[in-house]
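Trying the structure run again after the queue cleared.
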Amino acid sequence: MNPYVKFDDVEWEELLPGFRRKIIGYQSDLMLIRVEFESGIEFPPHQHPHQQITHILEGRFMANIDGEKMELGPGDSYVVPGNVPHALKCINKGSAIDVFSPLREDFFEKQEKDY
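Done. C-alpha cells:
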C-alpha cells in the first residue's frame, strides 16, 4: 500500500445532492475522510459502533450528540463515542474532516443512506 495520498488523485463521491466525500486514507483501525456540504443538508439521528471525531474546516453546523446541541464553525470539533446517537445539520455551506475508528467498511458499499 502506498503511504502517500495526493488529494487531487482521489475522486469525490456524491452521496446525496449537496453532500460529497473523499476517503483520503485508511487502515483497518483508522479512516480519514473529507466531506463537503451545501446549506440545509441534514443527517438525522443515527449511530454506529465506530468512534468519530469531526473537525470543521469551513461553514456553520448544528451538531446534536446524544441530545446535546451545539453550533460549530471553522476550527471547532466534536467527538462521538461508538454507539452514541448523533445528528448534524449544515447551516452554511461548509466542509469538514471526519476520522473514524475502526475503518468504516460500510463506506465501501454503495448505499442510499451512507453516513
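The CA atoms of residues 15 and 112 lie 8 Å apart. Worth checking whether this holds up in the mutant runs.
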